[in-house]
Amino acid sequence: MRLVVDLNKCQGYAQCAFLAPDVFAMHGEETLVYSPRAQEEQRERLARAVAACPVQAITADGLDGPSGPAGEAAREAADGR
Amino acid sequence: MAADYLDWLRREGRIVIVGASLAGLRAAETLRAEGFTGSLTMIGDEPYEPYDRPPLSKAVLLGKASPLHTELPHRREVDAKWRLGVPATGLDLTAKRVRLADGDEVEYDRLLIATGVRARPWFKEEEGRLDGVFLLRTRDDAARLLQRLRSARRVFIIGAGFAGCEVASACREMGLAVTLAERAGAPLVGALGGVIGAVAADLQTGNGVDLRTGITVTALEGDPAGRVRSVHLSDGSEVETDVVVVSLGSLRNTEWLTGSGLGAGPRGIACDAGCRAFDFRGIVTDDVFVAGDVARSPHALFGYQFLSLEHWGNAVAQAETAAHNMICRGADRRPHLWMPAFWSSQFKVNIKSVGVPPMGDQIMITQGSLAERRFVGVYGHQGRVVAAVSFDNTRWLEFYQRQIERGAPFPVDYTTVDRRPEGRQPVDADFPDPSLPTHGPTVTLSGYSPADQQLVFTPARH
Question: Which Pfam families match (chain A) (predicted)?
């Protein structure tokens, strides 16, 4: 799964770092460092991080497999649309 | 008639996007999202699908991400024909054709140019070819640099803009000895001015970087095997090193448009607020659009100055606006009015900005303290708030963005949380003379207001 965080939006609430610590980590007080490529076993944690971000800054694809309506919906949500 | 054309274009027209990075991808997605069902061709000079660049100088060097795996997530299927690894070499506006390096030609009905920028190479070509001298812009650059840093002890970085400062930070975390050289008086002065530059300088030196300012690199010296050995400076000193990272800002990828008749040159491609490119006469084209780092567009909030923004968020927003405008009716077109914003992280400090700091003449520290490296600084120009910068204080920036949008007065006349004595009066923001060459400003102000009669045009020549 690929992901990108809009770091203009990110305000360092660190919800993602709690929910998916193997993908996201705080580096300092409000700087986020993340891996743009998440392993398959991170799927559920990543989905929770995407949903929990207070500023909806995380876009990920492949959360529900490569295609399908649920995946599309997750992507739309991640885009804040 | 026009409506018929638009219906046809949306249904079965041919759209070509030159530039397959962030702006190109987001534009392609937007076209499909807004109902474009015709043929879409994506042309990119790198042989890779669109990937994200900001991690290359941060997460990748910190070992948190692979340089080979920063591919951007797709928001939707774009159903495009991808021509990757083949740069565009020419444009025929009359025949509506893009020429490719392999001799092929691709016809379009509407074209989007998002060719971005590339790293400015070291000015002495032969020295730049020495083993151990690196640029950092592409994933190949990052992979090569990372591999070499793993066996290096000393790194010399030329240019203390954002990229240079980020590389210095990552190298210190890797435990390497770092020398950072900057022609100006402090790091980041082109982007944020001397007041904030002084904080950035403390951040570097406080973390063990050997910072050399007010200095230029005169030569890179190699050993007999062609491997870089030392760096010569304008004060006559010489610094031994294993690796040199050249971080001197960027060049806009417009050479392929030379002679095309578009208003393209070293400062980018000028376009209107709707992302339509100007031709060399300053007349807007109908079928050529521009987005991302390569574009220069007028911004109503900043005196209609043409802004060239090398910002991640600008690439996304401008691509979305350009794509929308490419396939909608005239009355439905939107202006690109994105508020400039960027981020950087150095030595675990989060640096963010909104607005256009180099436009400011004065700065006020409205919250926090420079000494604590946790503050908000507000930039003013002609009685208005035009920008703000935060160090580890990002949650306040949205407030300041609203201040900029409504043209709030400067000096700020309201009280703020955590105002210190040092923030009661504005001081000179201390930007360098814009006529002097600097490295790595992230915002370039250029162009003229619509009322300016001094318009001088130099045809596109490099």
Answer: Fer4_13 (PF13370)
